[in-house]
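Re: beginner question about structure tokens

> Can someone show what the tokenized structure looks like for a real chain? I only ever see the sequence side.

Sure, here's an example I had lying around. Input first:
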Amino acid sequence: MSGDGRFTVTRRLTKDQQARRERLIESARELALEGGYPAVTMHDVADRAGVARATVYRYFATKDHLLTEVAATWAHRVTHDIDALAVGDTPIERLTALLERIVFVAAAEPALTSAIIQAVTSDDSSVDDARTVLFLFVRDRLSAAIGDPLPERDDVELVLGHILLAALLSLASLRRPVEEVAAMVRTSGRLVLAGAMVATGT
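And the corresponding structure tokens:
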């Protein structure tokens, strides 16, 4: 997957349509930053983007679908400089640096984090494809941070993805202190990688 098309399964868009779609995502992001999940309505997104309300529904089936795409652009923004973020000489150091970065950025934008977590964990079926692509992207970023060959890599990435989701839920829904959540992902990342290596005698 590459380019802007990495985040969603959709028809091929013209340049103007892609620009309009990105403007809708940015408008939803701004509204979520200002007021969280309740502040994002299809009507207000359309108004902020300067389009008719029907236009929003041509690109996004529901509010949760739209916010899941916001989550995808957020994940890309937070991890785009993966080489600079994943500092350290070992997989554990690189992974924990990335996990901590995600946690601290999420904590700095609590209303947005709460909105995208509520959408991504929705039982709305229109979210399914976008959520799958988002989770695969996050796993790819985790894999890039680990870098070195790792036994049972797919299982490790899956577990780490669930740990990250739990961390963001802890911030957004449980209102846990960011230092506590950062310590949790740091410890969890270290234990998961160390366990995978020990289990296979690496």
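Each token stands for a local structural state, so reading them left to right follows the chain. DSSP finds ten helices and no strands in the chain.
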